[in-house]
Amino acid sequence: MDILLLLLAVIITFSAQIYVSTTYNKNKNIKAEKNITGFEVARTILDSYGLNNIYITETNGFLSDHYDPTRKVIRLSKEVFHGNSIASFSVAAHEVGHAIQDKTGYQFMKFRSLIFPLVNFASYSGYFAILIGILLNSINFIWLGISLEIIILLFQMVTLPVEFDASNRALKELKKHKILTKKELIKSKTMLTAAALTYIASVLNTILQILRLIIIFGNSNTEK
User: Fold this and answer.
1) Measured between alpha carbons, how far is 42 from 174 in angstroms, rounded to an integer?
2) In the chain, how many domains are there?
3) Helical (H) or strand (E) element with 193
4) Which of 16, 22, 25, 28 could anchor a disulfide with 201, C-beta 3.0 to 4.6 Å?
5) Catalytic one of 40, 58, 95, 163
6) Could you tell me if 90 and 174 are in contact, meaning their C-beta atoms sit under 8 angstroms apart?
């Protein structure tokens, strides 16, 4: 059973990554009718909310775009920052969606930020605690490690509404400012939905990993 769960987790993860990459690559090659860049899209929406204090910077990497609520900075990958594609506009607007969430005090985002330090600790310590438990033959350390993995799962589940809401805000803003046409908005929605599936895949993957750990160590504990 544990091998089956591991295989299922790998399939879900790779399928989601392939789908989002394929959808993104397709839309990054479709030029938008409006002759502006991803940077200008982000700046337009931010300024309409009076978010002149939010900086937009260029960052390296593929799909490395993100909003930093601590420094109040939106970091866009080179392709998105300078791009004139449906994909570039969609990603830029999505990250602005997070900045708007921050401004309006979106509850799920606030809760996610609150538990982030604990999650950061859990991500480094979970499997380390399990390893110590195996080496010391201590079931208590093993269950501590599994509990830390459950904290990560909680963070991922809270992330889902944050990401879906940011995408919904992005589509509304792209429509309101007439940045994308009706046909382009349909393609944008498809791409943003594909991106959201990666977060769903992460949740499913973590659930399967936790179940696998429970099966492995639950059975070994029962045998003793």
Assistant:
1) 10
2) 1
3) helix 182-223
4) 16
5) 95
6) yes
Residue with tokens 């969430």: 101
Residue 95 falls in the annotated catalytic set: yes
Contact 44, 61 (CB under 8 A): no
Task: Look up tokens 């502006």; give the residue.
Answer: 36
Structure tokens at 8: 């299922």
Q: Count how many Cα atoms sit within 13 Å of the Cα of residue 34 in the half-sphere of its side chain.
A: 20
Q: What is the DSSP string of 5-38?
A: HHHHHHHHHHHHHHHHHHHHHHHHTSB-SS---H
Q: Give the position of tokens 């299922």.
A: 8
With H, G, I as helix, E, B as strand and everything else as coil, classify residue 85.
Answer: strand
Q: 166: burial class by Cβ within 10 Å (0-12, 13-18, 19+)?
A: buried
pTM metric for this prediction: 0.88
**Residue-number span of the structural domain to which 70 is assigned:** 2-223
Amino acid at 65: D
pLDDT tens-digit profile, the chain (224 residues)? 667 877 887 888 788 888 888 888 899 899 999 999 999 999 999 999 999 999 999 999 888 999 999 999 999 999 999 999 999 999 999 999 999 999 999 999 999 999 999 999 998 899 899 999 999 988 899 999 999 999 999 999 999 999 999 999 999 999 999 999 999 999 999 999 988 888 999 999 999 989 988 888 876 554 55
